[in-house]
Design brief:
The structure is a homodimer.
Chain A: E1 5-9, H1 12-25, E2 29-33, E3 39-41, E4 44-46, H2 48-57, H3 75-82, H4 93-107, H5 112-122, E5 128-131, E6 138-142, E7 147-149, H6 150-156, E8 165-169, H7 180-184, E9 194-197, H8 202-210, H9 215-221, E10 226-229, E11 232-233, E12 236-237, H10 242-248, H11 255-262, E13 268-272, H12 279-283, E14 288-292, H13 299-324
Helix pairs in contact in A: 1-2, 1-13, 4-5
Chain lengths: ~325, ~325
Amino acid sequence: MKHRVLALAGGVGGAKLAAGLAHLLEDKLAVLVNTGDDFEHLGLHVSPDLDTVVYTLAGLANPATGWGLAGESWAFMEQVEKLGGETWFRLGDRDLATHAIRTDRLRRGERLSAVTAQFCQKLGIAATVLPMTDDRVRTVVHSGVDDMPFQDYFVRRKCAPEVTGLSFEGADEATIVAGLDAVLGAGVEGGIEAVIVCPSNPWLSIAPILALPGLRERIAATGAPVIAVSPIVGGKAIKGPAAKIMRELGTKPSALGVARHYAGFLDGFVIDRLDASQADDIAALGMTVRVAQTVMSTPSDRVALARECLAFAAALTAAKTGSDQVPR
Amino acid sequence: MKHRVLALAGGVGGAKLAAGLAHLLEDKLAVLVNTGDDFEHLGLHVSPDLDTVVYTLAGLANPATGWGLAGESWAFMEQVEKLGGETWFRLGDRDLATHAIRTDRLRRGERLSAVTAQFCQKLGIAATVLPMTDDRVRTVVHSGVDDMPFQDYFVRRKCAPEVTGLSFEGADEATIVAGLDAVLGAGVEGGIEAVIVCPSNPWLSIAPILALPGLRERIAATGAPVIAVSPIVGGKAIKGPAAKIMRELGTKPSALGVARHYAGFLDGFVIDRLDASQADDIAALGMTVRVAQTVMSTPSDRVALARECLAFAAALTAAKTGSDQVPR
C-alpha cells in the first residue's frame, strides 16, 4: 500500500493540519476533502475547501485570509464591479485560473477528482488530494426563516442567520470518489495506519463527507484507528462559526460537545491543553483522549500537531494489538 | 427615429471609425458588430470583435494592441500556464470580467444583445452596440488542408494557413438581432441617413454580417446611402490579413479589389489618397468614389474620417434626391 494515512478535511484549520501531515508523510498522505460547499459563481465551478487544501499543501495559500492565494491581485473583481456583476464572493486574478480551467474541464466531461489530481501534479503536491465525491453534493443551511446554499450563508450573509439544521443535497445518491479505494486498501495487511479527522468544522466541513453512503463503513473496515482533533479550544472556534452553530443547535461549544457529536466514529480524540479538564468526560464516551497543543499559528505548529496525531494513532494501534490480540 | 447612422464593424479598424462616428453622433449611432469570430475558450464565451468595439467606444481599448483593455494585467494567464491550461489565446485580468459575466448571463438564458447593452450602459457608451445576431454563427476558415475555427486561424496559427474559402456556420438559420428594427425604421420618413461599412476585413469581419439572411434587403429598404471605407491602402491592409487573404483568394490586394467584392451593395466607396488613381475603375463598378485620408493614427483622424463619411453620405442623398426626385 502506498498511503499510510487518510485525513478528512474541510477549510482552513483542516488544511493546516493536512499540510503538517504532508510535511511528514509526503506521498504517503491522502486527504479526502469536503465538496459540499462547492458552488457556481459567475458561471464558474468554485470548490472553496478543495482549493484551500490544494493551495495550502502547495505553500501558496494566503496566510492572512486562510483562503485564496498569497500575493493575489484583484483587477478582475474591480472590473466585475464596473460592469455591474456580483461582487459578494471575491475571486482573485490568479485564483480564477483554477476556477476557469476546472469549469472548462468539468464541462468537457472530466471528473473533479481528475482535474484536482492534475492541479496537484502541476503545483508539485506529493500527497493525494481527493474531493469526497465526483458527484454533486450541496450543503444547505436551514434557519428558522429560510434555506440557504452554503456560500450564501457563509460569505454573503457572513454566518449571521441562526442555524436550525443542515442538509447535504445529493449526498444520499453520491458515490464516494473512486480514488479512495486505492488509499484505503480495506482489510489489506499493511494497509492504512490511521484516519485523522482534521480540526475542520464538524457540522459544515466533516459532516458532508461522513454523509456519503458507506463512508463510515469503509473507514471502519480498514481497522485503522480513527482520531479527530477538536476544532473547539477553550469553548471557541479557532476560525469560523463552529461555536456559534453549536450553540444554535443546542449544544454548549466545547471539545466535549464535539466529542459527543463524533461518538461512535472515533477511537481517539485530541483536545487542547486548555480543555484538559474535559478529558474524563470525553473518555467516558468511549474514546481515548490525548491532550496536546492544538492551535496552529506557525508552520512548525502544524508539523508538531501532525506528529502528535501520528504518535497517538500508533499508540492506539499498539494498545489494540496488545490487549485484543486481534490481527490487523 | 433616434438613430441617424448604422455602422457595420468588425475588429480594430472598424472600431476606430465607429469611435469617430460616436464622437460626432453620440446616441444617434448604432453599430452592428460581427460575432462570427466569437468562440468558447476556457469555458468562457469570448466575443473579440464585440469587445473591441465596446472597449474602443468606452475609451478603454489598449492603443498598442488594438484589442483588450489599456493597462491590463496578466496574473490570470500566468496562473493558467502554471496549472497547465491553454495559453495561446490571452485573456487579461480585467477583460476576463467581461467574459465571465457574459458567459454566466448567456447560460442563464439572457441574449447576447441584452448583455452587451448592459455593458455599454455601465461603461457610459451612448451609441447602440448590437451584435449582428443573438444566434450562434461561427466563421470557419478553409485551407487546402483543413477547416479551422476562426480563432484557431487568426490567433493560434497567426493567419499562416493559406485561405481557400470561408464559411459562416449557422448564418443561414440565424436571425438578425432584434434591436436592428428600431435602428433601421425601414421606410420611415426621417429614418436612418447612412449605412457605413467600416474599414474592417471584408471577408472576415463584414462578410459574416452580410451573410445573415435578409440583412442586405433590410439595409436596401431604408433607402439610405450605403458607403464603405476601404481597409486596403496602397495595396496593404492597415492591420490584419486582409491583403494576404485577397491574394490567396485570387485577387490583387487593392481598393479596387475591395470595391469589386462590395459591388452591388455600395452606393459610395471611400478610398485613400494613395489609391486615387483607382477612382475611375471603381466608379465604373457603379458606385461613387470619395478620396480621403483614411489611415487613423490618432483620435482626431478617427473623427475626421467619420466627418468625411457623413458628408459623403449627405452628398449622395442630396444627389439622389436632386436627380431622381424620389421622396425618401
